[in-house]
Each structure stands twice: as structure tokens, then as C-alpha cells.
Design goal:
mainly alpha; elongated; 22 helices
């Protein structure tokens, strides 16, 4: 192979069609997003960057709206209605008996009801439900009202909070209670917008939860559990914590929330993610909305195809891990080097047409962990010196230059694979792993506004090529 740096403009790689979708994470994601939102508000006088300014302009929003495939949206009102009905019916039968839910259901006074929800939501950030139950019960026994908490000392608050971690959460709760009592006449703000605006430490998720559960406002919420459910149901494989994808998920949540039972609907979506649509081993057979789940539909189709061949059966867990992201052609591990090379070459020829077998070189190994699944990739490269492969590629594939590779929606694993290829080329740029992953040499990473949803929501196909890389899984 010729040195990479001498032929950057002529380096191409074929990438496979993105797979279906899943997200991961839990309420921790919502908490981190709320902290970022609060930080952004406190710096609202700072001059926006070029990327921020571009995203803020209305024409840019029009572009983003147009770039989303209908495949990732709900088709019509009937589909939304079916989702609401199925989820709420399941929740009424299967919801866990939790102390904050009982308080919210039984409490008549709206301010006390909102306070009870507020305490539970803050405690549940970064903390598991089983741990929170005893802390919540003790807290509400000691300070059953906003006025009780407002009159407590910070030392008392910290003592009761001991063991829950992230002590600033308890401090902000007390600060908020004092503000409600001293500045708002003892009445909690009634909408998500005013809750977020007026109460310290209350971000978009917490404000939406309080407003919907305590006051019946029809506002959707997105925490880690809800994000995972939405990503799987609509086959969204991009990073749910990224700004643009997060905006999409909030839009979907708002579209779905039941106006008659917004609080129950939001709790049902969180409950589904926590108990059924879990990050590991989701219980798809028990899911009330499985008939509307695009990730599940994708898995069923692939399992049907796999049953007719020798390939392994996928599942929702694995199918989502790389869903929606471009990947190099790959095959499963073979027991011998000879069989492995043969299987890989056949796979490459399926995507790219006739190829010279003698030029297929083993370059190295990549080990990468996706959540709980550890995968090992044996990396191969195939240089087409002076040869142009077929210019027509099958649907679901595209040729990428090196420049396009670094701005496309590819996983960290695929970036590691590409680094192995780069390491085999004399004259490649040196530096940290981070710099080699994100860009060649010192090239600046494109801002988020440039990496619009089109990359992973509506992949397009390009043609032309002169070099090919691959990874055997």
C-alpha cells in the first residue's frame, strides 16, 4: 500500500448500511442534561460560537426538519393513539407500588403534591429506585411540607442525605423550598416553563415531571429510560445525548404524551424503560408496544433471514448498539485463517464486486466493549492499486473518502478499526488516540451543526472508489 498521507484524496472505504436502533442509559442522562442547561443559562451573555449561531437561525431548523426520515417518526394520529392506549393500559396493571406515587395520587393539596414529586425526582437522579425508597420515606416523615424543609438547617439536610451522594442535590432542594416559601408565597410554579425558570437545580426533565404529574400539564419528558424506549421504538441509532438527537427525542415525547393523563403517561414510559425495555436483555415479549417497535421488527426480519442461512441470530440488544451507524463490511469469526479470509473476501465481493484475493492483508486486532458486550475485530485491508472497483454499489452501502469518514456517523469501534489501518501506513500523522480518532493530524472537528441528522437518519449513497478497507468481526 502506498503511504496514506500521499494519497488522501484517493483513499476510499466502503461502508455498510446502518442497522436498527436502541439507546442506553437512565435518569443520569437527564440529570447531566439539566446541569448543562443550567450552565448555559448562567452564561447567556457570552458570545455564541459560529455553530451555535447557525443552529439558532430559523433556516437551519428548516433543514434539520427536512432531513429526518419518516421512518423515525410516528406515521399518523392512529399510531400515536395506539401507543398511548397500550402503554397506559399496561401501566395500570403492572406499575410498581412506590411511595412517591402513592403520595402524588392521594395528596389533594397541589403544592404538597408537587413537593412530593420534586423530592422523588431529585433523589432518583444518579440513584437506583431501591436505594431511594428508604431515603424518601425518611425525608417526607421529617419534612412533609415545603415549609418544614425551608425551616430546616443545611446540617440536618446533609445528615439525612448521607449515603445518597451528590450532596448538592439536597442543598438545592432546600434552597428551592426556601425560595417558594419566602418569594412565591408558598405556592409551587404550575408549569414546566416557570418551574425551570424559578427553582434552583430544576432542569427541563425535572420541571416536566413535576408539571405533568402534580399539575396535569401535557408536557413530555425524556430521561435515560424514556430515551432508550423512544430510540428502540423508532429505530434511532444515533447518540441520544447529542444535542440534535436529544431535540428529536423531546419532540417525540411531546407528540406522544397523553393530554388526558400526562403524568401517568410519563411515568409509564419511564417504568417501561426501567423494567421491560432495559439496557441489557430487554423483555420484548412483555412489552405493551412491541407491535409498534421498529427495532423489534428489524430483529424479527433478520432472525427470519438468519434462520435460512448459517449466520447468527441478532437480538434487540446487539442490533441497537451500532444501530444507524455506518460500519465496514464484516463477517463472524471463522475457526481458521483460511476460512476467515475466504468468508471476508466473499462478503467484500458481495458489496463491491470482483476483488483480488492476493491483496487482502491482516493488519491487526481491535477489542471494543459496547455496554456489556465485548467484541474483538480482526482488521484486514485491501488496496486496489491502479484499479477502480465497480461504481455502482448496492442499496445500503456507500463509498467514503477519508474526509467523509471523519464526519460520517461511525461508531468508536469503527474509528479504532480505521486507526489500525492508519498505523500500518508510513508517514501517517502522529499524536494522541483522541486526535487520530477525530481527525487526521490537526484538522478541526466539524461543529455539531454541520453533522446534521442526515448522516444517521437518512443515509445517502455515493459512488466511485479506489481503495477498500474491511474488518472481520
Amino acid at each position: 500500500m502506498t503511504p496514506l498521507v500521499s494519497r488522501l484524496s484517493r483513499l476510499w472505504a466502503i461502508m455498510r448500511k446502518p442497522r436498527a436502533a436502541v439507546g442506553s442509559g437512565h435518569r443520569r442522562q437527564a440529570a447531566s442534561q439539566e446541569r448543562r442547561q443550567k450552565h448555559a443559562k448562567s452564561n447567556s451573555q457570552a458570545k455564541p460560537s459560529a455553530c451555535d449561531a447557525g443552529l439558532a437561525r430559523q433556516p437551519e431548523e428548516v433543514v434539520l426538519q427536512a432531513s429526518v426520515s419518516p421512518y423515525h417518526l410516528f406515521r399518523d394520529v392512529a399510531e400515536v393513539t395506539a401507543f398511548r392506549r397500550s402503554l397506559l393500559s399496561w401501566y395500570d396493571q403492572e406499575k410498581r407500588d412506590l411511595p412517591w406515587r402513592r403520595r402524588a395520587e392521594d395528596e389533594v393539596d397541589p403544592d404538597r403534591r408537587a413537593y412530593a414529586v420534586w423530592v422523588s425526582e431529585v433523589m432518583l437522579q444518579q440513584t437506583q429506585v431501591a436505594t431511594v425508597i428508604n431515603y424518601y420515606t425518611g425525608w417526607m416523615q421529617k419534612w412533609p411540607t415545603l415549609q418544614d424543609l425551608a425551616s430546616a438547617s443545611l446540617e440536618e439536610v446533609n445528615q439525612l442525605w448521607a449515603g445518597l451522594g451528590y450532596y448538592s442535590r439536597g442543598r438545592r432542594l432546600q434552597e428551592g423550598a426556601r425560595k417558594v416559601v419566602e418569594e412565591l408565597g408558598g405556592h409551587m410554579p404550575r408549569t414546566a416553563e416557570t418551574l425551570q425558570q424559578l427553582l434552583p437545580g430544576v432542569g427541563r426533565y425535572t420541571a416536566g415531571a413535576i408539571a405533568s404529574i402534580a399539575f396535569g400539564q401535557a408536557t413530555g419528558v425524556v430521561d435515560g429510560n424514556v430515551a432508550r424506549v423512544l430510540c428502540r421504538v423508532r429505530a434511532i441509532g444515533a447518540d441520544p445525548s447529542s444535542t440534535l438527537v436529544s431535540q428529536r427525542l423531546w419532540g417525540l415525547a411531546q407528540q406522544l404524551v397523553d393530554p388526558a393523563r400526562p403524568g401517568d403517561f410519563n411515568q409509564a414510559a419511564m417504568e417501561l424503560g426501567a423494567t421491560v425495555c432495559t439496557p441489557q436483555r430487554p423483555l420484548c415479549s412483555r412489552c405493551p408496544v412491541q407491535s409498534l417497535c421498529r427495532a423489534r421488527q428489524r430483529v424479527e426480519r433478520e432472525q427470519l433471514l438468519a434462520s435460512r442461512s448459517l449466520s447468527g441470530n441478532p437480538d434487540v440488544e446487539e442490533c441497537g448498539l451500532l444501530a444507524g451507524l455506518w460500519e465496514f463490511p464484516s463477517v463472524t469469526w471463522e475457526p481458521s485463517e483460511q476460512l476467515q479470509r475466504k468468508a471476508l473476501l466473499q462478503e467484500l465481493q458481495r458489496w463491491a464486486g470482483p476483488l483480488p484475493a492476493t491483496r487482502l492483508r491482516h493488519l491487526g486486532e481491535v477489542v471494543h466493549t459496547f455496554s456489556h458486550i465485548k467484541l474483538t475485530y480482526q482488521v484486514y485491508g485491501l488496496a486496489l492499486e491502479g484499479q477502480t472497483p465497480v461504481t455502482t454499489v448496492p442499496a445500503g452501502a456507500r463509498w467514503l473518502t477519508q474526509e467523509e469518514f471523519h464526519t460520517a456517523a461511525v461508531s468508536t469501534a469503527m474509528k479504532k478499526v480505521f486507526r489500525v489501518y492508519q498505523g500500518q501506513q508510513p508517514g501517517t500523522c502522529k499524536g494522541s488516540k483522541r486526535s487520530q480518532v477525530s481527525s487526521p493530524c490537526s484538522r478541526k472537528k466539524p461543529c455539531m451543526g454541520q453533522q446534521v441528522l442526515d448522516n444517521f437518519f437518512r443515509p445517502h449513497i455515493t459512488t466511485d472508489a479506489s481503495n477498500l478497507n474491511s474488518a472481520a468481526q
